[in-house]
Amino acid sequence: MSSKIYVGNLPYSVTDTSLKSNFAEFGGVTSAKVMMDRDTGESKGFGFVEMASPEAAQSAISALNGVSVEGRRIVVSLARPREERAAPGAYSATGYRASNRPDVGYGNGGFGGGRY
User: Fold this and answer.
1) Are 29 and 51 in contact (CB under 8 A)?
2) Which helix (H) or strand (E) holds 16?
């Protein structure tokens, strides 16, 4: 079992240090990171906490999932691995696609190809 936790629906006032201190009572916290918007520098409302052990992670999930923080019910669960995805218009093992939309391109009707 993993010890990385996803924390969602966070109030925008939560910082890395406050997130770390809230999870520290359930065991050792290796890292705590609130995800920030690149352009504005404001919180995106979710973050990740890595606990020292899977047991500490499970106890934190059990205790904190659904708890109200500043009027928002936070979601606490095991973090899933990041899914690999190709950029639009990129070459992949299945071949090149100019778009991820199946209705755009040649052969699907009319001048220009798309269904409009």
Assistant:
1) yes
2) helix 16-24
Class of domain 4-78 (CATH, top level): alpha beta
Per-domain residue ranges of the chain: 4-78
CA diameter of the chain: 64
Q: Are 11 and 42 in contact (CB under 8 A)?
A: no
Q: What's the pLDDT tens digit per position in 46-61?
A: 999 999 999 999 999 9
**CB 6, CB 80: distance < 8 Å:** yes
Spatial neighbors of 14 by CB under 8 A, at least 6 apart, are 34, 43, 47, 69
Radius of gyration of the chain measured on its C-alpha atoms: 21
pLDDT at 93: 62
